[in-house]
Design brief:
Blueprint (H helix, E strand, L loop, with lengths): L8 H15 L12 H5 L3 H15 L14 H15 L1
Helix pairs in contact: 1-3
Length: 88
């Protein structure tokens, strides 16, 4: 089973690029634990767009129920890892 720690570095970089693009921030502004809403002014529409872009980029279904866990990069990596593990 794939875990957040096992997600390939290239996949983690792709996730970071997607998040930075949607939040309109530079990659060096985003840490693994910086909070999207509090530190980067993300709103609920940005969260939905991130989820949608991740589904397209990785070909995985991500349940909207996972959105509360997707508050920082580490949370997103964990959710994507789990979605990819379910996909097989």
């Amino acid at each position: 089973m794939t875990t957040a720690n096992e997600l390939a570095a290239a996949d983690r970089a792709k996730i970071k690029d997607i998040v930075c693009d949607i939040l309109e921030i530079e990659p060096d502004e985003l840490t693994d634990t910086s909070l999207f809403r509090e530190e980067h002014d993300a709103d609920s529409m940005a969260a939905i767009e991130i989820l949608s872009q991740l589904e397209r980029a990785f070909g995985a279904d991500i349940d909207q129920a996972d959105l509360p866990r997707m508050v920082h990069l580490d949370g997103i990596v964990a959710v994507v890892s789990e979605a990819l593990a379910v996909r097989g």
